[in-house]
Amino acid sequence: MSHYPPVPGHEVVGKVVEAGSDVTKFRVGDVVGVGLVGCCRNCNPCNTDNEQYCNKKIWTYADVYTYGKPTQGGFSGAMVVDQK
């Protein structure tokens, strides 16, 4: 995501600046919104497009990401997220 001015909150809007080879939903330059940065991908909520109900969800703000770093939401300079 691009370097928009910091905006507090857990839902973030920005531009795609790079996309992996498996990304099919978005292209560089697209404006996107992000509310979660992670989930288990295996439970019933994850498999029915209701990731916000996953017990292992990782919010974009005030949560702890897998590698132990806090998520900073709109205060982040950049984010890496899955296209889902």
UniProtKB/TrEMBL annotation:
Residue ranges of every copy of the Alcohol dehydrogenase-like N-terminal domain listed in the record: 3-83
Gene3D superfamilies on file: Medium-chain alcohol dehydrogenases, catalytic domain
Keywords per UniProt: Metal-binding, Oxidoreductase, Zinc
Keyword Zinc: yes
Required cofactor names: Zn(2+)
PROSITE patterns: ADH_ZINC
Sequence intervals crossing the membrane: none
Top-level taxon: Eukaryota
One MF annotation (Gene Ontology) recorded for this entry: zinc ion binding
Pfam families assigned to the protein according to its UniProt record, in alphabetical order: ADH_N
Any single biological process term in GO: lignin biosynthetic process
Family: Belongs to the zinc-containing alcohol dehydrogenase family.
Protein name: Cinnamyl alcohol dehydrogenase 1
